[in-house]
Amino acid sequence: MSENKQNNQKKQKQKQKQNHNTKKQRRKKAGTQKTKQQSKVTFSADKLTEFSIWYENILEYADIVDKRYPIKGMPVFKPYGCFMQTKTMDLIEKEWESQDIDRVKFPTMIPETFLNKEQDHIKGFGSQCFWVTHGGLDELNVRLALRPTSETAMYSMFSLWIRSHNDLPLRVYQTCDVFRYETKQTRPLIRVREIPFNEVHTVHSSVEDALQNLEDAWKGYYKVINDQLGIYGLRLRRPDWDKFAGAEHTDVLDSVMPSGKVLQAVGAHYLGQKFAKPFDIKFTNKEMKEELGYMTCYGVSSRLLATVIGVHGDNKGLNLPSTVARYHVVIVPILARKSKVPHEDLLSKAEELSKTLQSAGIRCKIDNRQLRPGEKYYFWEMKGVPIRLELGQYDYQKNEVRRVLRINSEKVQHPLDNIVELLQKDLKFVDETLNKRALEFHNSRVTNCSTIEEMQEAIKKGGFARIPYYSVGMDGKEGDKKVHELTGGEVRGTLVGEEPPEEGTLCLITNKPAKVYAYVARSY
């Protein structure tokens, strides 16, 4: 073999190795670039075209979770992320308190005998349970499950608490962790094995009261999710083959993520009397006759926070609404070397400003680290803080600050005399802008389709394809398989309250008479 040929082969192998390492590094660290001048963090992964990489990186660099804990699917919430998750659940809890729903706290472990009482339920969750088989070194007579959800735990007690119609409605909630043995690829906040969860469980004396309770629940969810978190989705009724195990029907809120896949943010279920019978949840009605209770349950998980992060974020990093932001404002003192104002005076003014804002309920952070101002700017943009206040020597002399908005980089000078009022208006503008953008994004991802090609194109684009469909009963499952073959998506359900297709409309998949409009999407 000639020396030139050997050198060429050697160079080719080195290039291949270099390309491999570059790709590997991009997957792992695509979100960070550092210059010699400063350690600023920027994102090279585009959120819309490389969402998976963007998402993994922002969770790491914004200190939301640390997934290095040695159990798959059980990441650690770091302080910044824990605050956001707690705030999200606080909003939900406040809504339930306003609806006079009482808080409870149930044990983490559930006897296997309880799970076995509702056969559809155990079929749905049995394979996903973590089982405790020993206490110390002794084998237990009855296995204990780490709760996959709380129906069976709560309902065993409801039967002891309810005697008369005067005890109804019974409505309780808890915020806890539930456990699912996920065998698929896990993803922080979206698909995990230990799931932060808020759940409500109710018992009623009539079908009408139970269904009205669900409508009230949806009003509460819309208030929090649309108005306070600024995210949107479709309320869909799941097909019979995909409803909650043991439910009469299941409604969900499916939100489109930047990847084009949808994420279930809410699950709400009418249980009818399916759980009341095996758990003996009875009451004496006004006619003094014994009757089974009518039940509902509904809940949200950390997927709600994942939706907030994914929908509002951009290529700079997080972009947070004020409701869940750890800090509303970051103050950056500009400590120039040749400043005419002593550094101590600038820092003292920053402290004074911080106290003023904190006392007005504006969460504030002073960044007085020994870093260049530009590094701090990039850092807090990545962390999604809505407002940055820059305080330099000339600002100090004029008794003002430079205000910079995260959502659009708008810069204005704010006088300190009425700073609280001005920043409150700014925060309101930030929330309204994020809300408007999210609604526009959601609306752009719902496409009416009248041909197979249009459906395929809509799914390729990302979001929902609305198609005429023959059935969401069990007989519609075969058509769903065809949908998956054609698009990689699935029938997610029907829009609650939507009118059926006109008579004579044919199913896009089977050519049978269409009874509903189905919404097709790829999902997490």
From TrEMBL:
Gene3D superfamilies: Anticodon-binding domain, Bira Bifunctional Protein, Domain 2, C-terminal domain of ProRS. It comes from the Eukaryota. GO terms for molecular function: ATP binding; proline-tRNA ligase activity. GO terms for biological process: prolyl-tRNA aminoacylation. Residues 104-321 form the Aminoacyl-transfer RNA synthetases class-II family profile domain. It holds the Pfam family ProRS-C_1. The keyword Ligase applies. Residues 1-39 are annotated as: Disordered. The keyword Nucleotide-binding applies. GO terms for cellular component: aminoacyl-tRNA synthetase multienzyme complex; cytoplasm. It is an enzyme of class 6 (ligase). It catalyses: tRNA(Pro) + L-proline + ATP = L-prolyl-tRNA(Pro) + AMP + diphosphate. Its EC number is 6.1.1.15. InterPro entries: aa-tRNA-synt_IIb, aa-tRNA-synth_II, aa-tRNA-synth_II/BPL/LPL, Anticodon-bd, Anticodon-bd_dom_sf, Pro-tRNA-ligase_IIa, Pro-tRNA-ligase_IIa_arc-type, Pro-tRNA_ligase_II_C. Residues 8-31 have a biased composition (Basic residues). Keywords: Aminoacyl-tRNA synthetase, ATP-binding, Ligase, Nucleotide-binding, Protein biosynthesis. NCBIfam families: proS_fam_I (TIGR00408). This is proline--tRNA ligase. It comes from Anaeramoeba flamelloides.
